[in-house]
Automatic annotation (TrEMBL):
Keyword Manganese: no
Protein name: Phosphoenolpyruvate synthase
Name of the gene encoding the protein in the UniProt record: ppsA
Family named by the database record: Belongs to the PEP-utilizing enzyme family.
Organism: Flagellimonas maritima
Keyword line: ATP-binding, Kinase, Magnesium, Metal-binding, Nucleotide-binding, Pyruvate, Transferase
InterPro entries: ATP_grasp_subdomain_1, PEP_synth, PPDK_AMP/ATP-bd
Keyword Nucleotide-binding: yes
Cofactor(s) required for function per UniProt: Mg(2+)
Cited Gene3D superfamilies: ATP-grasp fold, A domain, ATP-grasp fold, B domain
Metabolic or biological pathway, per its Swiss-Prot or TrEMBL entry: Carbohydrate biosynthesis; gluconeogenesis
Record-level Gene Ontology MF annotations: ATP binding; metal ion binding; pyruvate, water dikinase activity
The enzyme's E.C. designation: 2.7.9.2
Region forming the signal peptide: none
Length: 964
């Protein structure tokens, strides 16, 4: 919903862009062009003039440099699409290259271009890499040094963009080094794709690189020397040389010389030199790697104390070199006891912080769960499970950082260059995440054996990375979506595996996601509500399951989180019985409509409605917010309510192009659908008919004529209640139907919310659009899945003034994690609309005794609500947590107040949790919505799911000296 809104808002900016299909054609043409994206060689003088190749820039004007100019279409792409192909750094304005306002997309595109060149034989420079004089390496390196010296003068850049800056050092020329790790993977990928018999070797090099790979490739080259072409042999020899360079012994002399090159900053310089001397004397990887991790963290924590940007650059270069050493040595660290494995996991997690994959505050929140206490000799199964959860969190946060930093550029590029898809995976594999993920997987396998809590997901490796989110079971075709989920049309009888859940997911049989978004997004709430099995998995798991795409499978997730996925042909008799009745009982409910007061058709002051009016005058959003206004007057804004009666009054008007009213058209549609069912028409044909008719109705309502008396009253109420003339007060328009926020069905996010609407024209059109939204395909399909009378939907509208919150999110008042009454789960993102649309939100577990960071935010952008209306997109960094300690206290107190006050003031017998939408502006808490938090009790109590849940002795103790 929010994503659609943003797309519409920025549509005007994108309307003049060159189509992606044309960019794809351009790329193919550039590959064949001897000059690629370049035009001609020219002299570029310091005074801004450009001269012919034989007319150098004279010293009298400051001299200049010589390189290629860009083809006109390349310049046009940059201007219209912000796509920068074949960027020559020496030609580039440094301030425009480092462009934080646009999420540094230009720098990231340069990195992505280098990657594409490495995996696709030069990519757009396939022929142009031999265009003499097009790019001068010495000028590129000089530019790189100057760029970093300028960039690193700013302490905020280092604090906010530490990961990105370190990564860019691998790609931007500045010291003559190359990215050996990327070259190694690229060369092995090229060879395997060209000569499939090398595929096993490629998988080994990508997954578990070691010094033994050198002999492996040499043996391969010897074995297949008569089958390989000359070009393939050349690639193999280049790979061998790269492997030898990558696995060369540590050159401590070189590292110490680099330290000595630092000018000033004596204390840190001496400390670093001493650390290298200590490390030089160590032999065992288990001793060397902790030393490297400490240095990496020391550099990150103290680099801002170093005042010289030259020294800062030296330190960051050393940090990158030490990380490469750590990656090589980590494959040689092979613990043989549980304690050794836990120590390795802690050390590699520490290195994650030192390399920027997790932030300093995130590490502070997590390290206590990973550092073994002194003199401890054993751990219980429960303690070991908690350790695994924390360790798995580091792996997920690491991957989340890479995706958050680069997803904006990769997602743009894959629209015209599919090879860009591999860039994020390449960055993850070239980081400490690779070795850490292996170690965490090993711990997961060990714990599974000791506790019998095992996943049974086909026969893939690394199953300990899979964890259940919502219990349930399903049977259907497996669909593995490796690309953009927003472009996929889902069906309700299929099981989907996504990299990231789509923001507007229609009903499905089951889902698995690499990036779960957050526990309380609308997608997650709907899944919990309907008992849709839902689990998280790793990118490697997704890739491994791709070969089962299109197969019919059985999928189950238990309440304890273990997961089963197998071919339907392997189902046992009990599992077959679960689906013996095709239309098995889904406990559909009928929403009562007999108490709706359609005669009341005046605009209401929200202060005059309360929880008892829900489903009568208006939907639960307005009714409950009106109730909250009475309970927490300082935390709730004023509001207007357009009740059901005004909607029904308008629906009774004649519908253009028909002989009926809008309301009659709706009822005739459902009457005919029932007649079709009774006559034996297939359900999919009935649904197709309904959706077609509802689309006609939806479009008609968007053009409905608003009654003049209603418009006049609305104008008056804006002034008397909201304190300003309509068109002067930016507002939210929230759909609020009688078929949502029920105790049995949430309906979260199914209908339209319009953000920060200002002009009278847009507000009046927005009212029509909100009235129309329950008749969209997605909204109807979700209602149809759970409700017996989905046609009897009555939308009211809640109009509230916009609050430009600093951050916003969702709070579940109890039970979602620990299952206890003081178990509060909160998820927050920066800006407005946080956490509800699947953003990778900062999530905390709050109890009466403290709070735990479950996941940090990895959402790279957010929206703010300017007074001029509309939304403004901002990009964020992750160097500080969103919620502070005061916020945590306020949230805990608010949850306790809601639990006590709401039932008392409404005489409600409801004893479950509440789902609360809220935000903070300058540390003041604002409440925006409250609804019952609905879970599917059938899924949680299913006898079958209970039967496949292992009985675990969580008090069982395991000695740390146990062999693994």
């Amino acid at each position: 919903m929010l994503g659609t809104l943003l797309s519409m808002f920025f549509l005007g900016v994108q309307s003049q862009e060159i189509p992606n299909s044309e960019i794809t054609s351009l790329i193919q043409n550039f590959k064949k062009d001897l000059r690629g994206p370049y035009h001609r060689i020219r002299w570029f003088c310091k005074d801004g003039s450009i001269r012919e190749p034989r007319d150098p820039c004279p010293d009298s004007i400051g001299g200049g440099i010589q390189h290629a100019s860009y083809k006109p279409i390349v310049k046009e792409l940059a201007e219209k699409n912000r796509v920068y192909l074949g960027e020559i750094l020496a030609h580039t304005d440094k301030d425009k290259f480092w462009d934080a306002y646009n999420a540094n997309d230009r720098l990231k595109q340069y990195q992505l271009g280098r990657y594409l060149a490495s995996v696709d034989d030069g990519w757009i420079l396939r022929k142009a890499q031999y265009y003499r004089g097009a790019v001068q390496s010495e000028d590129e390196e000089a530019w790189g040094v100057a760029f970093y010296k300028k960039l690193l003068k700013n302490d905020d850049n280092i604090k906010e963009f530490y990961y990105l800056i370190r990564q860019s050092l691998r790609d931007i020329p500045h010291d003559g080094d190359t990215n050996l790790a990327q070259d190694m993977r690229s060369q092995s990928k090229i060879l395997a794709e060209d000569f499939p018999k090398f595929m096993d070797a490629r998988i080994k090099i990508h997954g578990k690189p070691s010094v033994g790979d050198i002999e492996m490739v040499k043996s391969f080259l010897k074995k297949y020397q008569y089958e390989l072409t000359g070009e393939q042999k050349k690639t193999a020899l280049e790979l061998i040389q790269t492997l030898e360079d990558f696995h060369a012994p540590i050159d401590f002399t070189k590292l110490k010389v680099q330290v000595l090159e630092m000018k000033g900053d004596a204390i840190f310089k001496d400390e670093l030199y001493t650390s290298l001397e200590i490390m030089e004397k160590l032999q065992e990887p288990k001793n060397i790697i902790p030393q490297i991790a400490d240095i990496l963290c020391n550099i990150r924590e103290k680099i801002s104390e170093v005042k010289s940007s030259t020294n800062r650059l030296l330190l960051l270069d050393m940090s990158v070199e030490l990380e490469d050493i750590l990656l090589k040595k980590s494959q040689d660290w092979k613990p043989n006891t549980l304690k050794g494995l836990l120590e390795k996991i802690y050390t590699l997690s520490l290195a994650s912080m030192g390399t920027g994959l997790i932030e300093l505050e995130e590490w502070q929140a997590l390290k206590g769960r990973l550092l073994l206490p002194d003199n401890i000799s054993n751990l219980t199964i429960a303690e070991l499970k908690d350790y695994l959860v924390a360790a798995r969190s580091v792996v997920e946060w690491n991957a989340g950082m890479v995706k958050a930093v680069y997803a904006n550029v990769v997602n743009d590029y894959i629209k015209f260059e599919p090879l860009a898809y591999g860039f994020i995976d390449d960055r993850i594999r070239s980081s400490v995440s690779l070795a850490l993920g292996e170690s965490v997987s090993e711990l997961g396998n060990f714990l599974a054996q000791e506790s019998s809590l095992t996943n049974k997901v086909m026969n893939i490796n690394g199953q300990s990375a899979i964890r259940g989110l919502n219990p349930g079971y399903a049977k259907g075709e497996l669909v593995v979506v490796e690309g953009n989920p927003e472009e996929v049309t889902v069906q309700n009888d299929k099981i989907y595996i996504f990299q990231k859940p789509p923001s507007d997911l229609k009903p499905v049989a089951g889902i698995m996601t690499v990036s779960e978004g957050n526990l309380v997004s609308h997608v997650q709430l709907l899944a919990r509500n309907l008992g849709i099995p839902n689990a998280a998995l790793s990118s490697d798991n997704l890739n491994a399951l791709a070969k089962y795409n299109g197969k019919e499978v059985f999928y189950a997730v238990t309440a304890s989180g273990n997961v089963v996925l197998k071919l339907s042909t392997a189902m046992n008799s009990e599992e077959h019985r679960l689906f013996a009745n095709k239309q098995r009982n889904t406990n559909k409910i009928t929403v009562p409509t007999d108490k709706i007061k359609i005669a009341l058709n005046e605009v209401l002051d929200m202060r005059n409605v309360s929880a008892s009016d829900s489903g009568k005058l208006c939907g639960p959003k307005a009714a409950n917010l009106g109730q909250l206004k009475k309970m927490f007057p300082e935390q709730v804004v004023e509001g207007l309510v357009i009740p059901f009666g005004i909607f029904k009054d308008h629906m009774n008007q004649s519908m253009p192009g028909t002989n009926n009213s809008y309301w009659d058209f709706l009822n005739i549609t459902f009457t005919k659908a029932e007649t079709m069912r009774n006559s034996g028409t297939k359900e999919e044909d009935v649904e197709e008919f309904q959706l077609k008719q509802l689309k006609v109705l939806e479009d008609a309502i968007k053009k409905i004529e608003l009654r003049p008396d209603f418009v006049k009253e609305l104008q008056q109420k804006f002034g008397s209640v909201l304190g300003g003339t309509i068109g002067e007060v930016p507002v939210f328009l929230r759909s609020d139907t009688n078929m949502e926020d029920l105790e049995e069905f949430t309906g979260a996010g199914l209908n339209l919310t319009l953000f920060n609407v200002l002009s009278e024209e847009k507000i009046l059109q927005g009212i029509k659009d909100v009235w129309a939204s329950p008749y969209t395909e997605r909204s109807f399909k979700w209602r149809q899945r759970y409700l017996l009378n989905p046609e009897n939907v009555y939308p009211s509208i809640l109009i509230i003034p916009s609050v430009d919150v600093d951050y916003s999110g969702v709070m579940i008042t109890k039970g979602i994690n620990l299952g206890t009454d003081d178990d509060i789960t909160v998820a927050f993102s920066r800006g407005a609309g946080g956490a509800v649309d699947g953003q990778s939100a900062e999530t905390h577990l709050i109890t009466n005794y403290g709070h735990t960071l479950l996941s940090p935010s990895r959402q790279p952008d957010h929206i703010r609500l300017p007074e001029s209306g509309g939304v403004k997109k901002h990009y964020e960094t992750f160097d500080s947590l969103i919620l502070n300690e005061k916020n945590i206290v306020d949230l805990r107190n608010m949850a306790n107040d809601i639990r006590k006050i709401l039932p008392a003031q409404t005489a409600s017998t409801y004893k479950g949790a509440y789902d609360v939408e809220l935000g903070f502006k300058k540390d003041k808490l604002w409440l925006f919505q409250i609804r019952p938090f609905v879970e599917n009790t059938n899924a949680k109590t299913s006898e079958y799911l209970k039967s496949i849940t292992p009985k675990i002795d969580f008090d069982k103790k395991i000695a740390l000296n146990t062999s693994i």
